[in-house]
Amino acid sequence: MTSEDIINKTKLFVKETLADAEGGHDWFHTLRVYNNALLIAKEETVDPLIIGLGALLHDIADSKFHDGDETIGPKKAREFLFKLNVDSKVIEHVVQIIENISFKGGNETQKFKSAELDVIQDADRLDAIGAIGIARCFNYGGFKNRGLYNPDIKPNLNMSKEEYKNSKAPTINHFYEKLLLLKDRMNTSTGKKIALERHNYMLNFLEQFYAEWHGKL
User: Which of 1, 40, 102, 139 is the most buried (most CB within 10 A)?
Assistant: First the structure.
């Protein structure tokens, strides 16, 4: 089976698996991350098959939607790739990417490093900021029945992974607890360049939001 065949079969698998997923973590999110990864990879020395598989499978079973269980995604990916007879080293690399890609509150030490993870992590983080990032943020806030904004509830920048995972803070807080931090956590030059533009878009949005909130516009 060629690399192209493997990628095409993986696309079908992910599309079917995420058919009923929450709108910010669905097939279209995965597809955007995949396309972002291909764009960033043009300027990096990486394995294209690992880039493709890692991007497509990075959210195959996001722990947020599986009672916090972080083992389901890697297990699903490994079983699927094994059935396709993908090389074992490729499988393990992809699994390591899935296990280490998440933000997790931003205070966790990443236990695995690779150029491919850098690319896919940037691609995933780019989809969390800018116009799409704002849309995803409020979509997930609505999904979790969170308030839009409460000036009495301040952002918490020192959360543990468990606190971050269980937070019920208003959606606006998430900008300060994650989205606005991502610009300075990009790994690649391409990722950094795109992130800066999207970061500034979010700052403009927040300025407008607060002006409307306080009746100044």
Answer: 40
